[in-house]
Amino acid sequence: MAFRPADWPRRLRSQEWYGGTSRDNIYHRGWLKNQGYPHDLFDGRPVIGILNTWSDLTPCNGHLRELAEKVKAGIWEAGGLPLEVPVFSASENTFRPTAMMYRNLAAMAVEETMRAQPIDGAVLMVGCDKTTPSLIMGAASTDIPSIVVTGGPMLNGWFRGERVGSGTALWQMSEDIKAGKMSQEDFLEAEQAMSRSTGTCNTMGTASTMASMAEALGMALSGNAAIPAVDARRRVMAQISGRRIVQMVKDDLKPSDVLTRAAFENAIRCNGAIGGSTNAVVHLLAIAGRCGVDITLDDWDRLGRDVPTIVNLMPSGKYLMEEFFYAGGLPVVLKRLGEAGMLHKDALTVSGGAIWDEVKDAVNWNEDVIRPADKALTASGGIAVLRGNLAPEGAVLKPSAASPHLLRHRGRAVVFEDIDDYKAKIADDTLDIDETCVMVLKNCGPKGYPGMSEVGNMGLPPKVLKKGITDMVRVSDARMSGTAYGTVVLHTAPEAAVGGPLAVVRDGDMIELDVEARRLTLDIPDDELLRRLGDWTAREEAPQSGYAKLFHDHVEGADTGADFDFLRGCRGRDVPKDSH
Ligand code: FES
């Protein structure tokens, strides 16, 4: 794609605040001068907002203030004026009921922060799971030039000679405790080994997936996703991204130039190749909704179906992000996709050039970490989109994280009405359940939880684990952590809380999963299903006030990205009227 830079110099939007001699100009400029900025910095140069999700309560992004100093250095070098701006930081490991409930709020806050202030371009400093999509969503809705800088993954964790993958090891060890294979003391000792350095989860969980998605979409410079948080090259990346955003403003290279249908198709295929998180489905659908790009669940299935998973990282594989970086990182994967005819090579990136030019010379330094196609972890690594009378608007499953022998399975439903019901029953040895059953969890979707929690990979009953069984088919309207694994059907839509068919599944019903045929079927007669749906009533009253009400009244289904209905689309960058 040939990008046509805009004429330069020209008057930027920040000059509406700073460029002139009116009372209002002096008001805006004069107050900023209390920080010691010389008058000539307001001469029409690009004002760059460094939108920073640093927070002591978002430990995965805890180093982003330090990294922002390198971004600032790059902006100064390129002749811009850097201004660091804290923005809503939805931490995965602290927000309750789930950070996902606040992704849209964060996106809304970022959008208004950008539009309402003298920002000509933005550096989106992100890392922890929801921080990446929320800032890209906000930037897409303003269409102000923006570039993503992620904080990078933590170094490998090690415990007694084994890799400890963020999240993945936690799920595994907690199952081992229930199965009597690990002591609580060892579990506490392993805790110390999980997070060796600053940075995001070191598995191909949601944070690493979304960093990869940002790069595959073209919103980050090539190579950004995998550089460890503490590697000096992460700081170099921050500095050159700071330089780059200044030129992007001069060229008026906007999110809408980058986030095209071709970019989303590249990202979806890339997700299959890296064995990325199912959370990418809801986030990319939501971002596409902001851009007016018509990407659907069916595109996920169609585009990912023939993509082999070649990145051998937990939770699908063996290694961690540090090793992915040493092997060559995402550019190698994108090069492979290009060679296989699975990449829109001319898709524009924030570099100002085509994505193929960024990756065509990438070298794979470790063919066990980034495998050749004939040694792929899974030949069909994309996200499988299932439909049927149990999921008329779709459900998803990640084949690379599932057990091959369960991809076609028929079993008796054991139903949990919500997560509390699950917790109350699961350890009860009198629960009528064995490994052939299908565990069904309801009321964990966007409205039901609320926020669509990552509980879809519900742990197996201890009495099944003690038999040495490690996987069962599970079906829910919840999400699953990107670090988790199992034969887990997620995002079932419509969700139970709005009366989707999941709501009327009963103990003892037979459920059939056929991933190859993309089918999820509740095996009861049609008239019985209709009768049950007709008798269904909502379980709880909707919230009456506060953000919970806004969320409940406006969140859309998982099948379209769970954004708010009133936030779809791009509202542009026009300056609001001055109030002074
Ligand atoms: Fe923040 Fe995993 S919990 S990146």
TrEMBL record:
Q: Which residues form the Dihydroxy-acid/6-phosphogluconate dehydratase C-terminal domain?
A: 368-562
Q: Which GO terms describe its molecular function?
A: hydro-lyase activity; iron-sulfur cluster binding; metal ion binding
Gene3D superfamilies in the record: IlvD/EDD C-terminal domain-like
Indicate whether Iron appears among the record's keywords: yes
Q: Which InterPro entries match?
A: Dihydro-acid_dehy_C (IPR042096), ILV_EDD_C (IPR056740), ILV_EDD_N (IPR000581), IlvD/EDD_N (IPR037237), Sugar_Degrad_Dehydratases (IPR052352)
Q: Which residues form a coiled coil?
A: none
Pfam families named among the record's database cross-references: ILV_EDD_C, ILVD_EDD_N
The chain positions of domain Dihydroxy-acid/6-phosphogluconate dehydratase N-terminal read: 45-355
Sorted keywords for this record are: Iron, Iron-sulfur, Lyase, Metal-binding
The entry's family comment says:
Belongs to the IlvD/Edd family.
Listed name of the protein = Dihydroxy-acid dehydratase
